[in-house]
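Bit of a strange request maybe. I'm writing a small parser for structure token strings and I need a real example to test against, not something I typed by hand. Could someone generate the tokens for this chain?
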Amino acid sequence: MKQRVIVISQRGFLVGTQVLDEALDQQQTTSGVRVQAHLIAGPKQKLHEIEIAVPENHYRRENVAAWHKEVKKRLKLK
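Reply from user aminoacidic:
Good idea to test on real output. This should exercise your parser:
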């Protein structure tokens, strides 16, 4: 399933990624307060928003390298 992903790059290199999960975005915490966090590009950085198939365990240490490789390939980064 494809999901929206925010990617930050600087001088052609991958700096960070954030998978936007709409289901989590709609949920509220037990106190009733919605908490959101978003990546923001700093000086000389570019923010990209792409739709890409996200592996189920993309956040696990053994899967991060393959996940970042796929994102870099999609954006043609170094």
